[in-house]
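At this stage, I put together one protein's amino acid sequence and its backbone structure tokens, which the following lines show:
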Amino acid sequence: MMDEILIQALSGLSRGMVLFVVASGLTLIFGTMRIANFAHGSFYMLAAFLTYSVATMVGDRTWGFLAALCLAPPIVAGVGALIEWGLLKRIATRPHQYQLILTYAITLIVADGIKMLWGSDYRTVARPAGLDGAITILDMPFPTYNAMLILVGVLIAVGLHLLLTRTRFGKTIRAAVADGEMIGALGVNVQRLFTGVFALGAGLAGLGGVLAAPVGSVSLGIDSSIIIESFAVIIIGGVGNVMGALIGAVLIGVVHAVGILFVPKLAIAFVFIALCAVLLIRPQGLLGRNT
């Protein structure tokens, strides 16, 4: 029984790592720009469909996946930059509800655009050769691709930590999370920063979409589920805190996966029970700051 729990927890960890990649982009946008970007899930879904198209055009499942990995996140990041520059910055001084309504409208537009281009059928993306088997952990099989997701999630977490702590761009983002008005007064081009942060966040959502495509179906509606979980992650971890997003994503992934093993019908409820517990005990999130 303990072997099964461990494998199930590792499966939840791999899912949590994909969720972390997506949610880390959302928490950067939310923490820096104070925008609850409902379109973030649309970037994830768009990247998943782009992965399907690129993989189909290339033909070879390994090279197709690698091509999608190189192409989809930058394309989605570019779409995000255009949305921020062309739409969001024009209503930046208006009340926040305008931004909420606009980002929600973008989700509807993207969904309809995807439906026009790809249709409403379910799509699948084959796992790369060499990652479609399983490794043995305590005499039990564990998918190799899922193990790769855990490794990639750790590398992304380390990379983001270094970006935010060792580069000028990252330090400026952290300063903006702490006090956005102050960095503007110090001469930082806030608009350019916002565009860069939004593009980075969209690119991370796109990367998550590429990574998730081979482990599930690519279909309309996957944006809704990922955005709900992503908001839960940043609330649990603390707004604007990438390491908090990592902890929140791992917690949600593992709790959901282990919950499926014991009480399948209530598995998703355990996620929101954990969310409610954090809100009651530590409203600012596990690693969030008191305001």
Observations:
- The chain has one domain: 13-220.
- The longest helix spans residues 2-33.
- The chain has a mean pLDDT of 89.
- The radius of gyration is 19 Å.
